[in-house]
Amino acid sequence: MYYNPFDHALQENPYPTYARLRDEAPLYHNEDVDFWALSRYADVSPAFRNHGLYSNSHGVSLEMWDVAAQWGLEPTDLVGFLAMDPPQHNRMRALVSRAFNPSRVAGLEPAVRALTRQHLDSAFEAGSFNFTATIMAIPMDVISELLGIPHEDRAEIRQHLENIIGRGDGDTDLPDTFWVGVEALTTYYKALIAKRRAQPREDLISALVTANLDGEQLTDQEIVGVLTLLNAAGNETVTNLAGNAWYQAWRHPDQRAIAWAGNITGWIEETLRYDGPPQTMARQLTRDTVIYDTMVPAGARMLLIGASANRDERVFPDADRYDLTRDTTQTQMLAFGAGVHFCLGAVLARLQLRVICEELIARVSSYEIDETGITYTHSPTLRGFSTLPTTVSLR
Fold first, then answer.
1. CA quadruple 80, 84, 86, 87: dihedral positive or negative?
2. Which residues are registered as beta bridge partners of 23?
3. Does the keyword Heme apply (predicted)?
């Protein structure tokens, strides 16, 4: 069998391949792209937690692996503290996490609900719309409000983020559009950072500019890395998860009825398990290690396929069944990772998804999706829809 996360056809339906990996090659080696992959929950879950053996030092995606050697940049310049291990990671996370404490996130709910209603209203007025385009405006505005990005700049920021995330079919190198996006965002963020240094406001950029931990402050480049990470991860995760939930509920009308009866938590959590946006995370093996009777050398590029682990029938009974009544409290899903690198924005993502789902259920009695018009987001790390044509009937 052959597994290549950069293949567009695989990205559109990776789960049969994941099942084969779990059964036939729980340790898989792709010599062409030069990586090893783990796909079973029993392997992926402890690997996420063992940063001493599975290091984040090169970032979390394969195509960024050689970025320092090729372009004179550090992975931290692109993804901030995602490319760090403790203790450096702890310093950065401690500074940024102050913006994501549960009470501050909970306080965002009125703003999230107002933004959600605003964007849904215009879509519902049309009756037929691209669900993805409608939903993506919500986390874009939420993150922008959190960071302090002006309204008039948000469409431009979104385009730069799309350039950073998009990949060509089978392309294992970072495309030119990636660098265009990075350069544009870096220029924009540095100008905004300079403004906040001169005149701080009540936003996250100002908090990062003025943050002080044991006498240390963040550099401009460190702040740029954090802002790029928060904007990209915050927007794409919520947008793709909402689209996947909408699509899976449409494909499974019996489960849609359960969601519409009020089981919103089950709808969100089962979608995270069954078809969550984050698919893979890259790590570097720090020492020679025997895995499944094979010696994997230190320095190896390891791909942890969390989306496969979440479908592992050894852990989740009847794992390929979309079941909103499933008890997801007994075993931790890996959609947001695990250990010290567990997604910092998971609480905010769940809040946004809950509000979006509540508002959809309150207004929509039924809906149809035109499958002939569906297009996918093509990324080796994220799964979702670029176009999800939807027609709604309102209550």
1. negative
2. none
3. yes
pLDDT attached to residue 70: 67
Domains of the chain: 8-134+242-394 (1.10.630.10)
**pLDDT of the residue at 174:** 63
CB of 198 closer than 8 Å to CB of 222: no
pLDDT tens digits along 248-298 = 999 999 999 999 999 999 999 999 999 999 999 999 999 999 999 999 999
Q: What is the pLDDT of residues 196-225, one digit of tens each?
A: 999 988 888 888 888 776 777 788 888 887
Is the pLDDT confidence value at 67 over 70? no
- pLDDT given at position 185: 84
SS3 labels along 279-295:
CCEEEEECCCEEECCEE
Q: CA distances (Å), 293 to each of 19, 296, 304, in order?
A: 21, 9, 18
Q: Please give the Cα distance from 367 to 120 (Å, whole number).
A: 14
**Rg, the chain, Cα only:** 21
Using DSSP's 3-state secondary structure scheme, residue 129 falls into: strand
The secondary structure element, H or E, covering residue 357 is helix 346-363
Name which of 42-51, 81-90, 122-131, 303-312 the model is least confident about.
Answer: 81-90
From the CB of residue 241, how many other CB atoms can be counted at a distance below 10 Å? 28
The identity of residue 26, as a single letter, is P
Measured distance CA(312)–CA(29) in Å, rounded: 20
The pair phi, psi for residue 365, each rounded to 5°, is -90, -35
Closest by alpha carbon to 309, among 75, 63, 43?
43
Give the angle 246-100-346 at the CA atoms, nearest 5°: 30
Encoded amino acid at 207, one letter: A
Indicate whether 96 pLDDT > 80: no
Secondary-structure percent of the chain, ordered helix, strand, coil, rounded to 5: 55, 15, 30
Rounded Cα gap, residues 115 and 93, in angstroms:
28
Q: Which two tokens stand for residue 284?
A: 């570097």
- In whole angstroms, how far apart are CA 379 and each of 51, 170, 200, 277, 385? 25, 10, 36, 10, 11
Amino acid, single-letter form, for residue 239: T
